[in-house]
Amino acid sequence: HHDKLALPVGTTLDRFIMRKQEDFPYATGELSQLLRDIALAAKIVNREINRSGLIDIAGAYGNRNVQGEDQQKLDVIANIRFIRALRNGGEVCTIISEEDEDVIQTGNTQGKYVVAIDPLDGSSNIDVNVSIGTIFSIYRRVSPTGSEGNSQDFLQPGTHQVAAGYVIYGSSTMMVYTTGNGVNGFTYEPSLGEFFLSHPNILTPKTGAVYSVNEGSSESFSQGVTEFVAYCKDNSFSARYIGSLVADFHRNLLKGGIYIYPPTAKAPNGKLRLMYECNPLAFIVEQAGGKASNGRQRTMEIEPRDMHERCPLFIGSPELVDKAEELLAKEH
Ligand code: AHM
Ligand code: MG
């Protein structure tokens, strides 16, 4: 029932989150607060990213950042910012991050939620001014409230996600998220410091003519993946690969297409992480009418065994993901 939830373009993210909450009479507002905490951290990280080109220049006249910390790499800074926001917000008991091997205890043992996050994905692109992103996934904890969370809280299939989203720091900064009621996109207005609803109820095209895969590894693609890439070429698809997952995903979500990170010789299980790269994007794409698969199985139904495990990813327009799965099923 997206109609009931429809709000006009230009609604601020804060208002949007509040109004959505009113549609769920028993909601306590904790998830809403958590989403606002993530948006706040995103604004701070956005500011750091925009300034990043100036860091060396600022460093040359001895500038230090406000906390007096030595200047660190942006992915480390983003990790600190998001963890701090989630800790201060109080709704999250435990976090896993691509930047940390172990689970992170926020100290909020009463918090009902756990968050898996890639604070700044595509960090190799930072130095060359290419779009980068934050990806997050929110689960209800399974460990008892009042205790510390643990890795079991994260070993839940993607179907259990209560919300997921990403922030793209691009030509404009956007936050796109779902709570399981469709997907909405908000564009950041830096002079006002607000995200505004710009892409209500995003639906991805049923098919598309873009394929996004790192073909530099094509020598080690499986037969099915090789055949799928050939299928794309036979049909004169456009090849588009930024090498920044959020940016490649965002483009294909809006325009139609498929993003693939297959098993390769270098990365036999693919490169991307199930908990904070594949599952959140899978939740979003499905809510937008698309599909996500590891080539054989729906991404969100994979039973995770390790918090940081990797899995192959085929994600995007439903007809293209179906086609890829069909060709992979014929492999022997
Ligand atoms: P990272 O988490 O180390 O930044 O790596 C993830 C990135 C994705 O953003 C991108 O889609 C992928 O790695 C590109 O990998 P490759 O260079 O192997 O194609
Ligand atoms: Mg990453």
UniProtKB/TrEMBL annotation:
<feature type="binding site">
    <location>
        <position position="118"/>
    </location>
    <ligand>
        <name>Mg(2+) 1</name>
    </ligand>
</feature>
<keyword id="KW-0378">Hydrolase</keyword>
<feature type="binding site">
    <location>
        <position position="271"/>
    </location>
    <ligand>
        <name>substrate</name>
    </ligand>
</feature>
<feature type="binding site">
    <location>
        <begin position="121"/>
        <end position="124"/>
    </location>
    <ligand>
        <name>substrate</name>
    </ligand>
</feature>
<feature type="domain" description="Fructose-1-6-bisphosphatase class I N-terminal">
    <location>
        <begin position="12"/>
        <end position="200"/>
    </location>
</feature>
<dbReference type="GO" id="GO:0005829">
    <property type="term" value="C:cytosol"/>
</dbReference>
<feature type="binding site">
    <location>
        <position position="118"/>
    </location>
    <ligand>
        <name>Mg(2+) 2</name>
    </ligand>
</feature>
<dbReference type="GO" id="GO:0006094">
    <property type="term" value="P:gluconeogenesis"/>
</dbReference>
<dbReference type="GO" id="GO:0000287">
    <property type="term" value="F:magnesium ion binding"/>
</dbReference>
<dbReference type="Pfam" id="PF00316">
    <property type="entry name" value="FBPase"/>
</dbReference>
<feature type="domain" description="Fructose-1-6-bisphosphatase class 1 C-terminal">
    <location>
        <begin position="205"/>
        <end position="328"/>
    </location>
</feature>
<keyword id="KW-0119">Carbohydrate metabolism</keyword>
<comment type="subunit">
    <text>Homotetramer.</text>
</comment>
<dbReference type="GO" id="GO:0005986">
    <property type="term" value="P:sucrose biosynthetic process"/>
</dbReference>
<keyword id="KW-0963">Cytoplasm</keyword>
<dbReference type="GO" id="GO:0006002">
    <property type="term" value="P:fructose 6-phosphate metabolic process"/>
</dbReference>
<dbReference type="InterPro" id="IPR000146">
    <property type="entry name" value="FBPase_class-1"/>
</dbReference>
<comment type="pathway">
    <text>Carbohydrate biosynthesis.</text>
</comment>
<feature type="binding site">
    <location>
        <position position="241"/>
    </location>
    <ligand>
        <name>substrate</name>
    </ligand>
</feature>
<feature type="binding site">
    <location>
        <position position="121"/>
    </location>
    <ligand>
        <name>Mg(2+) 2</name>
    </ligand>
</feature>
<dbReference type="InterPro" id="IPR033391">
    <property type="entry name" value="FBPase_N"/>
</dbReference>
<keyword id="KW-0460">Magnesium</keyword>
<dbReference type="InterPro" id="IPR028343">
    <property type="entry name" value="FBPtase"/>
</dbReference>
<dbReference type="Pfam" id="PF18913">
    <property type="entry name" value="FBPase_C"/>
</dbReference>
<comment type="similarity">
    <text>Belongs to the FBPase class 1 family.</text>
</comment>
<protein>
    <recommendedName>
        <fullName>Fructose-1,6-bisphosphatase class 1</fullName>
        <ecNumber>3.1.3.11</ecNumber>
    </recommendedName>
</protein>
<dbReference type="GO" id="GO:0042132">
    <property type="term" value="F:fructose 1,6-bisphosphate 1-phosphatase activity"/>
</dbReference>
<feature type="binding site">
    <location>
        <position position="214"/>
    </location>
    <ligand>
        <name>substrate</name>
    </ligand>
</feature>
<dbReference type="GO" id="GO:0030388">
    <property type="term" value="P:fructose 1,6-bisphosphate metabolic process"/>
</dbReference>
<feature type="binding site">
    <location>
        <position position="98"/>
    </location>
    <ligand>
        <name>Mg(2+) 1</name>
    </ligand>
</feature>
<feature type="binding site">
    <location>
        <position position="120"/>
    </location>
    <ligand>
        <name>Mg(2+) 1</name>
    </ligand>
</feature>
<feature type="binding site">
    <location>
        <position position="277"/>
    </location>
    <ligand>
        <name>Mg(2+) 2</name>
    </ligand>
</feature>
<keyword id="KW-0479">Metal-binding</keyword>
<dbReference type="InterPro" id="IPR044015">
    <property type="entry name" value="FBPase_C_dom"/>
</dbReference>
<dbReference type="GO" id="GO:0006000">
    <property type="term" value="P:fructose metabolic process"/>
</dbReference>
